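ok so for the tutorial part 2 we go from a plain amino acid sequence to predicted structure tokens. step 1 is just haveing the sequence, like this:
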Amino acid sequence: MGGVDKGLQNFQGIPLAMHALLRLGPQVGEIMVNANRNLAAYESLGAPVWPDADADFAGPLAGFAAGLERCETEYLVTVPCDSPLFPPDMVERLAAALQEADADIAMVATREGGVVRAQPVFCLLKTALLGSLLAFLDSGQRKIDIWTASHACVEVVFEDSHAFAGANTLTELQQLQS
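step 2 — the prediction. this is what the tokens look like for a chain of 178 residues:
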């Protein structure tokens, strides 16, 4: 997004990150934000804010690690701030699939043009995976699909792929609003 902080960009009059908090809040018991800059702005949204442990931007898995290190429950749910339309029953569906499959991770998948595509940043994972994730990151690896593939993972297909559309550019953000 041209260097601007994505989570603080307005969507329908409020920051993208606030949309994520408002949509996820009713689905979970506690909520937290992972951010690495503009921490005071994120804190003003009303949730605890935790930056990555390592200043070397390691991508989504570093955010997963920050959440897992502070999560006080058996499971952690992750969502990106740039996809404000995810379904209000997402966590319920992920939890049911995780339990039914006896998996470690349940992740969203969408069907686009007949092809099922994983959306691994939308996931429910066991907090017991923290050690595995830290070892993976310490080895210098960053690819989310490689780490998730090393665990029992179940994909939950959501037919409405637009619900998981993300805004990586200001143009895409405008398109989400139309």
